[in-house]
Amino acid sequence: MRTARIVAASVLMAGVLQGCTPRSEAQTPPDPAVTVAVPLVRQVQDWDEFTGRFEATRTVEVRARVGGYISAVHFRDGAQVRQGQLLFTLDPRPAQAALAAARASLAQAQAQLALARTNLARSEGLLEAQAVSQAEVDAQRGAQQTAEASVAAANAAVRARQLDLEFTRVTAPISGRVSDRRVDPGNLVGGGSSAADVLTTIVASGPIHFTFDASEAVLLKYQRQTRQGVAPVRLRLQDESGFTRSGTLDFTDNAVDTASGVIRLRAVVPNVDGFLKPGMFGQARLAGAGTYEAMLVPDAAIATDQARRIVYVVAADGSVAPRPVQTGPLIEGLRVVRSGLQRTDRVIINGVQRIQQPGMKVQASTGTIAPVAGRSELPVTRAAPASSATFAASLSSGD
Q1: pTM above the 0.85 mark?
Q2: Does domain 33-45+292-366 have CATH number 2.102.10.10?
Q3: pLDDT digits over 335-379, tens only?
Q4: CATH architecture assignment, domain 92-167
Q5: Three-class DSSP labels, the chain
């Protein structure tokens, strides 16, 4: 009886095990699905990135050259003005009165000169008749020369008073965008010196400078490269995603700052529409070495393993293997891979998060790697402008 029970239990257990075996196999998860693609190979160019500020090529503080009362303002605040355009008018009556007095002094000096010439001619005639001495003639000749000097001084005074009258009309010294007026009509302002009242300011709107600081290491790199006059710069503003603006590096300072270890660089940027304003912040990319052939993968395909950057490569049997890579800049939404990959490697570009451990099997479907639409960050090699040759020569010589 006891034996029968044991046999029945064994049969029952065997049945249970047989029933569980298919269910366990059905619960085994399939291999995760991923998308793989070979790296995209393109000609690219490295760029060094800097943050800087836009500055006007010319800035002028408008001051009156003579003092007086402001009688009128002839511009609209913030308007675009031309060189020579009338901005302010000072009360001209004091200058007109001074000019009239100077002209009267000139007429008096001319009359004195005419009298001196007459006296000299009379004395020279009497000297021939031995009616006067030579000393008298010399005195009359000196009086004539003094009168001539007085006339010259009076003419200079007239010209000075004419300038004073002209300076009552304050005109724009340069073309550009004017600020608001700092002085309203009816106020008395000083003029004729750097301490005079500032009436307004004008900044040249185009082209515009972009100034930034570079480290000594960057300076050394560019000085050691054979640049052949090419110094293009790409720029973007704070709210822009792409480097759509272009310029040319035209100046490098003559010394490295010993306190900070940086050197000041400057690019000139076209600003035809006047959109760029002095004081704006921006980001610049300065072209590094010449173009080279590089492999690119999506930035999302690159994982981090402690201090390493890795990508996952799928073998022919579907197994996954990590590859340590050395990465470069981000170009058109794709990351440059400098080393660690082969052109024929099948890189996981979608589904990296499903990789749990190296060596696991995956179901790989083939995809393609393409630049991200709307991103125009890929540098384009340009011909060197003539203005950049001087800067490139100074870099190569270390001046």
Answers
A1: no
A2: no
A3: 999 888 898 999 999 988 888 888 899 988 899 898 875 554 444
A4: Orthogonal Bundle (1.10)
A5: CHHHHHHHHHHHHHHHHHHHHHHHHHCCCCCCEEEEECCEEEEECCEEEEEEEEEECCEEEEECCCCEEEEEECCCCCCEECCCCEEEEECCHHHHHHHHHHHHHHHHHHHHHHHHHHHHHHHHHHHHCCCCCHHHHHHHHHHHHHHHHHHHHHHHHHHHHHHHHHCCEEECCCCEEECCCCCCCCCEECCCCCCCCEEEEEECCCCEEEEEEEEHHHHHHHHHCCCCCCCEEEEEECCCCCCCEEEEEEEECCCCCCCCCEEEEEEEECCCCCCCCCCCEEEEEEECCCCEEEEEEEHHHCEEECCEEEEEEECCCCEEEEEEEEEEEEECCEEEEEECCCCCCCEEEECHHHCCCCCCECEEEECCCCCCCCCCCCCCCCCCCCCHHHHHHHHHHCC
